[in-house]
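Morning!

This is the sequence you dropped in the shared folder:
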Amino acid sequence: MTTVVQPEAPDAQSRPTDNILGSLITALGEDIAFKLIEARGGVRVYIPQDATHDHKIAAAHKLADVIGKEGVVALSKMFGGLTIPIPVARLWRVRVYRDRGHSQPEIARMVGCCEDTVWRSLRSMGMGMSGAVPKKVFA
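The structure's back. Tokens below.
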């Protein structure tokens, strides 16, 4: 039977699964966590119990293809034996794409939202473009 972790249980003690995004960044680093979220965001992923053995990593080959063997080992130390929901992390991805120099239209396409959502997201993080909200051409 696979254990499914529900994020942010209201009465739970502090666990690595309480803040999945933060835990992924801690375990993998920002770049590898970003790759994982881009590839698997929005779905649950089983993390092998003890991925220090090659046969355990082979069982998680799809995950290893995305984050490498070292990434699987790092996740198994934190989440081993659990099925965790990989967050979509839209707001964080908007910030990362912006930090990498992408334009708002490019970010909107990569994140899967409209440009207005990107603009509002950037503004909420204090990263908005100078000037007003882009005017809508069509009502």
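Headline: The longest helix spans residues 61-79.

More detail when I'm at my desk.
O.
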